């Protein structure tokens, strides 16, 4: 328990106070008595621990993954090649480097790995292998650099920045029947690792050539980054190293130093580290720098530049190890013979001329006054503790040296260990705010105290924060009386001091990991806030901090989760990344509650969790047999799919951020098209739904959904895709069920060749109408005639003989018009209508031609008479008109009068008036404005007199409005009214 | 003026800022497309609509280095100058012919070695086949891109928003292209967003199949944007309480009738486009026959909008017979106002008059002069159409147009057949002849197969055989369909029938089976459309039948009125009114419980276009029902526009010249 003796676990190292927290007592102490006997990798941010147990006897090597408290998360057999080293990426993927240059990337829960490969099998030496590898974090993600046995360095940036789509052949690898274990049969050097508990790949898939090509396809942008340097004798000009502590390779000038890396025989550098691209050092994505210790000196390797010697210490101080801080601002160099640690600052940049003056220099050389004891054998590990100190670990001892020169350093930190067994030297994992130490027994965390915490707890310091905490303790009854507390409060005079004390307490609460201490400090902060004006309470809200701390405590103290994040680490990671990490561990319910607790928006929080859960559920379904084709579902499969979809819909529902199309895509990739289609029924975004249906090959359904959405753009998109994919026959079959799509397709298709589509669709009448339009668009007579013939035949095909006859008549008329043009020169007929042609002929006096044309085209008698009358009157041939009127007219004689009046010949109209029928006479008289005569005539009629008088009344009323003040109209109207009254008085009704 | 004040305009329901935003959005989106200076080429059919939201000067200032337009239907190539390197932005209507022209221009540029960016932006959406066409022409690529600018709404008046989709009716009725409906749904949802942040209107009255589709699309759009129907529950009194979507297929009769109100008459006679009327400044009275082009000397633009023209506000919804009186009153009031201003005694009064009122007065005087000229012109043209008017009125009310004597000798239907044949011989305006034929087909039971065949022959012999296609198109759209001997609409493959054809009386009626094929006559009876007292209705501008000279009520207006009244609940006096129940083309959808008992405002959407007379009818309904109404339409149409949309041959001169042998 921490509580009151918080300061007792603090070590003063240089200018820093470093707190030593025991995070966990590990659970696997019996299972793994000594971690140093295995290949291990511990992740940052309280992440998982990977332990690789190599069993050389029966070749049953295993990979075990534990959480930070030592509970097993997953394990799998290692059936791949010779593992050299491994580490965790920034997204908690396990990156394993094999000696053959293969890089395998496993997810936290195992599964099929993704493969990257270094091409080290150069033509020069077929025996080239990876000698050592370093992992680094850059702004482009996690990277890995390797040094080969021939002295070449290669690196890959952004290991995970590629599509999560499995590599070619991997699916079939997974789909193979279970039980066909290949761990024994697969070649050891195979670049294809087997999935845990899964199966063999076909031999063809294991061909390196095939694999390399698939990498190139999957990640074409990465091949550019696979850059190498060759460390050769010509380009090195190093002074010969002293043979005392270093063995010199005869083949290469690179000096191999003993100690740090278990290296195979070969010209591998002793120690090296990577300066990764960061915004601060302005290195591009395909650039890194490498510090190499060579012959006791420090070299800087950079692409396309000769190696630069940065440091050439005297031979007696040959460098044996180096360590770069996490932020790449400090470089620590260790010289084993002299036990000197020198720290350089790289913050001001790096030049090829050399390193700047050292920041500090410590010597642990034994002497009578030296406080340092022990440290036998070679230095085992070296790591930074948050830029404050450097931890050095020997097999039997460890030591913490401050960054800045100081006499104070901590020795034998394991003195706090209780019941320490033979757990060996701890693993070191630098964090940006401290250093993790892991043994088989304990998981410890060293953190430099921030200044506010130091002010609060330092027993040698009395700050307002200390007083506030003391006062709070007093009130809570732990120390003195309330009066004493009040007196204590009085000692903090100004608001600024009170505010500083509150801030100090809040900062301390963030730092403290033990919940009772957190509560105590938070309560003190609240008490302080109560003494301040209300605006400060609003500015320093503690509820959000409380929720965050509650979440972190749950993460830490729930051993099934075992995620010991400090608040600073949580702040740097962000809630989103934390949720991702929980999801990676398949802690869906906890992640869901965390989203609720911290009020994450539904689309970013709960929906994401539910989507991940649903994807995992789909993943757990066994895939169907059959590759890439819809082979239909068995009854059991269909039932399983139905049950799963019901579960997913029940739990996931329709909340913002949920994307059923994505789930369907996942199901489709697992060769579950039936499940995918079922899921797509619940997708509300038409675009996604339709795209996925198209991908599944359900073209008809895709079109149906697109039509249902009403989004014409989407329909067009589907049509375009179908047009490119399907034959026209198929397409017509699909679209016939969707008239809307059909209409759109016609429009699209009509842009180029409407006739072809109409022909294909057997729409003869539309096709004929189209030809007809084309005919009348043609300006050349011969062409028009030809197209009219075509239209006629189309109408006949369409079963519309009447319209076909009309087209034939049109062609016939055109023919006759052309003939007329030839016969009657200086007159144009082509293009006129039949009536216009007849009128022109009648107007010209070509009555016989007109008569023959009329007979040919079967113009009815009445219409023919009407035409004659109109044409003769319009052309001023009134003699012929009168002659015509002497014959018996089938249309009566009113049209004659009207035609004469239209032509402006009133006299002729008056002359024709007596021949007009009685029913029409009144109207004609009205047109002639002979109103008196009209009234007389109407009143004298024996039948229909009332009707004609009413007509006259209305006509006169309109004329009065139109031409007011006309005496003729006025008098006629008056007379009509009088007549009306007379008739009414006489008993006759009008 | 008093007459005009009666038709008090409804308050603008859509925020004017929203309308102003439309133009700004266009400018912004176009700028995002081009990313800098560019040459702007605008489709001529877009010039006037764009003028409603922005101006050429504004476009030039904010958007483009240069603004050009088509001339004579051809694209003017940008000059060969330093500006040639600027990208060209084309603003086009969804018309593939225009796109082909742009493709040709691009290819011509490529031939000359000029490489520049061609951006073709379609308003409001890229048409079907545009990509296919561009690919076929081999131009689609980085330098030739197709985009859409979803500019949907153009405010024509304070209560009238138009989408200016000129071919909407044809697309829906004949082509089966429903992309128009998607645009309308987008427009409705955007209006919802502008007027009410909380959700859609609770009550939806849907007339016709297309209206149902629009309703479904609106739901779909809302679900896509995250605002679901559940948001309707949160709707407040600030937005529309009802939405009425009226599909043109329900009432094809009203837009085929000649318009009697002033604004409609102007549209029928002069073709008002986007609320703008180009009239000759002088000598407008020296007019020509209907159908002929007016002299375009010194043309001036006149806003046919109550928003911009106070004189038009007084006249717009008046019957033509009442317009001269009103013009006289306006002239009188202007004169008295001017005299009052001129008789100002003090210098301050004079200054106030000159500064504040004189400009307004001058504008009003100029407007008055224009309207007097237009009124004369309209009257003249109407006299030429009087015989059509008589026939049309008889068809609408089902009266007998024939003489007493002729009635005994020939039937009414034969009278019409003869009459139309005579019209063909006289070469009366073919569009009006066809219009009346369609009206007869829809409203009076139509022609027999033989009569129709005879009429087609007469029409083709009179106006040319290209009209064989015209008749086929009208048949396909359900406007001119023959009837069998029993009187049923003959079912022809591919032909659409109007919704009226399937309108039936309530099934409770004993004669339900017998009336299965009832159409307009049945509906006329059921909805009591014919006025009992036409003489008084002709004078009463508050009556719905005022727009039809007091003879009958327009079907569309009546249906909208009934929909609004059904939402309000009926008073005792309205119990005898007909109801919409069991009408096969009507559906009422409720999105949420109506928490607001009093209807305050309604959005009326007219799919396929509406006439100015219908706009006036809707205004009358609004004032009578005390409901604020915002009208949204795909475009304002005149009496012949529907026919011209369906039959492009009617838009071109009747007899195109042909090169004969002598050439």
Automatic annotation (TrEMBL), chain A:
Entry superkingdom: Eukaryota
Limits of the Vps16 C-terminal domain: 658-942
GO biological process: endosomal transport; intracellular protein transport; vacuole fusion, non-autophagic
Domain Vps16 N-terminal stretches: 8-160, 380-532
GO cellular component, one term: HOPS complex
GO molecular function: actin binding
One Pfam family here: Vps16_C
Family, as annotated: Belongs to the VPS16 family.
Name used for this protein in its record: Vacuolar protein sorting-associated protein 16 homolog
Source species of the chain: Macrostomum lignano
TrEMBL record, chain B:
A Pfam match: Sec1
GO biological process per UniProt: vesicle-mediated transport
InterPro entries assigned: Sec-1-like_dom1, Sec-1-like_dom3a, Sec1-like, Sec1-like_dom2, Sec1-like_sf, VPS33_dom3b
Family according to the record: Belongs to the STXBP/unc-18/SEC1 family.
PANTHER family: VESICLE PROTEIN SORTING-ASSOCIATED
Protein name according to UniProt: Sec1 family domain-containing protein 2
């Amino acid at each position: 328990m921490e509580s009151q003796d918080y300061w007792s676990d603090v070590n003063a190292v240089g200018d820093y106070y470093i707190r030593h927290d025991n995070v966990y007592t590990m659970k696997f102490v019996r299972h793994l008595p000594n971690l140093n006997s295995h290949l291990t990798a511990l992740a940052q941010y309280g992440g998982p621990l990977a332990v690789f147990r190599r069993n050389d006897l029966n070749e049953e090597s295993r990979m075990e993954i534990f959480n930070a408290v030592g509970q097993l998360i997953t394990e799998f057999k290692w059936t791949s090649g010779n593992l050299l080293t491994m580490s965790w990426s920034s997204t908690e993927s396990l990156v394993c480097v094999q000696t053959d240059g293969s890089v395998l990337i496993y997810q936290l829960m195992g599964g099929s790995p993704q493969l990257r490969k270094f091409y080290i099998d150069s033509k020069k030496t077929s025996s080239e292998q990876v000698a050592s590898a370093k992992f680094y974090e850059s702004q482009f993600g996690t990277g890995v650099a390797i040094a080969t046995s021939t002295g070449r360095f290669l690196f890959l940036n952004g290991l995970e920045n590629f599509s999560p789509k499995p590599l070619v052949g991997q699916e079939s690898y997974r789909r193979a029947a279970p039980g066909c274990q290949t761990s024994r049969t697969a070649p050891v050097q195979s670049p294809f690792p087997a999935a845990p508990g899964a199966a063999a790949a076909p031999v063809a898939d294991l061909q390196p050539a095939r694999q390399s090509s698939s990498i190139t396809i999957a990640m074409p942008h990465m091949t550019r980054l696979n850059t190498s340097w060759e460390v050769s004798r010509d380009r090195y000009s190093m002074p010969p190293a002293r043979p005392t502590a270093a063995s010199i390779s005869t083949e290469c000038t690179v000096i191999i130093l003993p100690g740090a890396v278990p290296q195979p025989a070969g010209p591998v550098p002793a120690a090296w580290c990577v300066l990764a691209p960061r915004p601060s050092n302005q290195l591009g994505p395909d650039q890194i720098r490498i510090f190499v210790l060579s012959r006791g000196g420090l070299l800087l390797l950079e692409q396309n530049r000769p190696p630069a010697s940065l440091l050439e210490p005297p031979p007696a101080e040959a460098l044996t190890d180096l360590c770069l801080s996490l932020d790449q601002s400090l470089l620590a160099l260790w010289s084993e013979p002299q036990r000197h640690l020198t720290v350089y600052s790289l913050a001001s940049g790096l030049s090829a001329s050399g390193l700047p003056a050292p920041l500090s220099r410590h010597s642990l050389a034994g002497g009578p006054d030296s406080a340092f004891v022990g440290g036998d054998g070679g230095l085992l590990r070296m790591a930074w503790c948050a830029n404050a100190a450097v931890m050095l670990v020997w097999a039997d001892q460890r030591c913490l040296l401050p960054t800045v020169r100081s006499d104070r350093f901590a020795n034998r930190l394991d003195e706090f260990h209780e019941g320490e067994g033979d757990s060996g030297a701890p693993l070191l994992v630098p964090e940006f705010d401290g250093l993790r130490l892991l043994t088989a027994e304990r998981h410890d965390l060293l953190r430099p105290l921030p200044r506010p915490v130091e002010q609060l707890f330092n027993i040698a310091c009395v700050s307002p924060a200390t007083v506030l905490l003391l006062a709070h303790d007093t009130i809570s009854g732990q120390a003195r009386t309330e009066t004493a507390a009040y007196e204590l409060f009085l000692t903090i005079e100004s608001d600024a001091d009170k505010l500083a004390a509150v801030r100090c307490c809040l900062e301390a609460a963030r730092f403290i990991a033990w919940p009772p201490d957190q509560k105590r400090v938070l309560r003190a902060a609240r008490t302080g806030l109560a003494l301040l004006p209300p605006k400060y309470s609003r500015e320093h809200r503690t509820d959000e901090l409380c929720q965050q701390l509650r979440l972190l405590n749950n993460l830490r103290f729930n051993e099934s989760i075992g995620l010991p994040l400090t608040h600073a680490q949580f702040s740097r990671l962000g809630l989103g990344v934390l949720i991702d990490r929980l999801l990676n561990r398949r802690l869906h319910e906890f992640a869901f509650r965390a989203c609720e607790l911290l009020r994450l928006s539904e689309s970013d929080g709960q929906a994401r969790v539910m989507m991940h859960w649903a994807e995992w559920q789909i993943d757990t379904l066994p895939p169907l047999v059959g590759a890439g084709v819809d082979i239909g579902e068995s009854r059991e499969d269909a039932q399983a799919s139905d049950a799963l979809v019901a579960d997913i819909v029940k739990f996931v529902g329709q909340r913002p951020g949920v994307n059923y199309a994505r789930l369907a895509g996942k199901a489709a990739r697992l060769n579950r098209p039936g499940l995918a289609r079922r899921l797509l029924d619940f997708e509300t975004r038409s675009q996604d739904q339709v795209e996925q249906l198209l991908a599944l090959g359900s073209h008809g359904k895709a079109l149906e959904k697109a039509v249902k959405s009403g989004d014409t753009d989407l329909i067009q998109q589907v049509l375009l895709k179908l047009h490119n994919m399907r034959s026209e026959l198929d397409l017509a079959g699909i679209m016939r069920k969707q008239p809307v799509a059909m209409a759109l397709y016609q429009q699209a298709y009509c842009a180029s060749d409407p006739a072809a589509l109409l022909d294909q669709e057997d729409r003869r009448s539309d096709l004929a109408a189209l030809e007809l339009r084309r005919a009348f668009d043609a300006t050349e007579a011969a062409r028009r005639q030809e197209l009219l013939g075509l239209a006629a035949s189309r109408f006949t095909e369409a079963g519309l003989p009447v319209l076909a006859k009309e087209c034939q008549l049109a062609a016939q008329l055109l023919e006759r018009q052309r003939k007329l043009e030839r016969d009657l020169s200086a007159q144009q007929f082509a293009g006129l209508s039949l009536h216009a042609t007849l009128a022109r002929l009648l107007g010209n006096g070509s009555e016989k031609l007109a008569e023959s044309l009329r007979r040919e085209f079967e113009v009815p008698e009445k219409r023919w008479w009407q035409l004659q009358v109109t044409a003769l009157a319009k052309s001023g041939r009134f003699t012929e008109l009168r002659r015509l009127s002497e014959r018996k007219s089938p249309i009566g004689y009113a049209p004659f009068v009207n035609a004469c009046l239209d032509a402006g010949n009133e006299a002729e109209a008056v002359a024709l008036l007596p021949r007009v029928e009685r029913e029409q006479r009144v109207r004609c008289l009205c047109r002639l404005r002979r109103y008196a005569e009209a009234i007389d005539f109407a009143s004298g009629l024996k039948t229909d007199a009332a009707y004609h008088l009413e007509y006259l009344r209305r006509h006169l009323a309109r004329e009065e409005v139109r031409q007011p003040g006309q005496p003729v109209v006025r008098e006629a109207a008056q007379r009509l009214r009088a007549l009306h009254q007379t008739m009414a008085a006489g008993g006759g009704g009008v | 003026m008093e007459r005009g004040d009666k038709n008090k305009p409804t308050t603008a329901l859509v925020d004017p800022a929203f309308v102003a935003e439309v133009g700004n959005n266009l400018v912004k989106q176009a700028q995002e497309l081009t990313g800098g200076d560019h040459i702007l080429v605008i489709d001529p059919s877009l010039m006037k609509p764009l003028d409603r939201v922005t101006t050429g000067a504004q476009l030039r200032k904010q958007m483009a280095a240069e603004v050009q337009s088509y001339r004579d239907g051809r694209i003017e190539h940008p000059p060969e100058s330093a500006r040639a390197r600027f990208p060209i932005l084309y603003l086009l209507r969804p018309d593939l012919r225009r796109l082909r022209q742009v493709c040709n221009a691009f290819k011509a540029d490529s031939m000359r070695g000029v490489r520049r960016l061609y951006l073709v932006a379609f308003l409001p959406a890229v048409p079907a086949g545009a990509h296919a066409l561009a690919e076929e022409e081999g131009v689609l690529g980085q330098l030739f891109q197709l985009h859409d600018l979803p500019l949907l709404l153009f405010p024509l008046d304070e209560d009238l928003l138009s989408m200016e989709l000129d071919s909407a009716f044809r697309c829906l009725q004949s082509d089966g292209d429903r992309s128009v409906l998607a645009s309308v749904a987008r427009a409705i949802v955007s209006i919802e967003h502008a007027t009410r942040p909380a959700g859609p209107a609770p009550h939806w009255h849907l007339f016709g199949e297309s209206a149902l589709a629009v309703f479904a699309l609106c739901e779909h759009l809302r679900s896509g944007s995250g605002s679901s129907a559940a948001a309707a529950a949160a709707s407040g009194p600030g937005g529309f309480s009802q939405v009425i979507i009226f599909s043109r297929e329900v009432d094809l009769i009203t837009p085929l009738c000649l318009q009697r109100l002033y604004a409609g008459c102007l549209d029928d006679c002069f073709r008002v486009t986007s609320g703008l009327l180009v009239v000759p400044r002088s000598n407008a009275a020296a007019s020509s026959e209907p159908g002929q082009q007016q002299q375009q000397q010194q043309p001036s633009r006149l806003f046919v909008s109550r928003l911009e023209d106070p004189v038009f506000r007084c006249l717009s919804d008046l019957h033509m017979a009442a317009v001269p009186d009103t013009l006289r009153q306006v002239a009188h009031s202007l004169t008295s106002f001017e005299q009052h201003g001129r008789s100002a005694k003090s210098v301050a009064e004079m200054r106030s008059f000159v500064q504040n009122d004189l400009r307004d007065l001058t504008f009003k005087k100029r407007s008055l002069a224009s309207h007097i000229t237009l009124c004369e012109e309209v009257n003249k043209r109407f006299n030429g159409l009087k015989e059509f008017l008589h026939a049309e009125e008889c068809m609408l009310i089902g009266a007998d147009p024939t003489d007493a004597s002729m009635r005994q000798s020939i039937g009414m239907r034969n009278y019409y057949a003869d009459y139309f044949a005579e019209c063909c011989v006289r070469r009366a305006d073919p569009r009006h002849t066809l219009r009346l034929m369609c009206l007869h087909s829809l409203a009076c039971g139509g022609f027999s197969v033989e009569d129709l065949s005879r009429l087609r022959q007469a029409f083709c012999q009179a106006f040319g055989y290209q009209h064989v296609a015209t008749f086929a198109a009208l048949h396909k759209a359900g406007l001119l369909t023959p009837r069998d001997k029993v009187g049923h609409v003959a079912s022809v493959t591919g032909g659409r029938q109007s919704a009226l054809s399937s309108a039936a009386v309530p099934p409770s009626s004993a004669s339900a089976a017998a009336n299965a094929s009832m159409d307009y006559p049945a509906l006329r009876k059921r909805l009591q459309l014919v006025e009992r007292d036409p003489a008084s209705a002709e004078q009463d501008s508050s009556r719905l039948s005022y727009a039809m000279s007091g003879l009958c009520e327009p079907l569309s207006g009546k249906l909208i009125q009934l929909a609004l009244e059904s939402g309000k609940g009926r008073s005792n006096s309205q119990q005898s009114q007909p109801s919409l129940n069991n009408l096969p083309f009507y559906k009422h959808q409720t999105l949420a419980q109506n928490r607001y008992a009093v209807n305050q405002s309604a959005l009326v959407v007219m799919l396929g276009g509406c006439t100015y007379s219908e706009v006036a009818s809707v205004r009358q309904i609004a004032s009578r029902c005390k409901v604020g109404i915002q009208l949204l339409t795909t475009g304002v149409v005149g009496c012949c526009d529907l026919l011209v949309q369906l039959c492009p041959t009617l838009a071109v001169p009747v007899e195109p010249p042909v090169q004969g042998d002598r050439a």
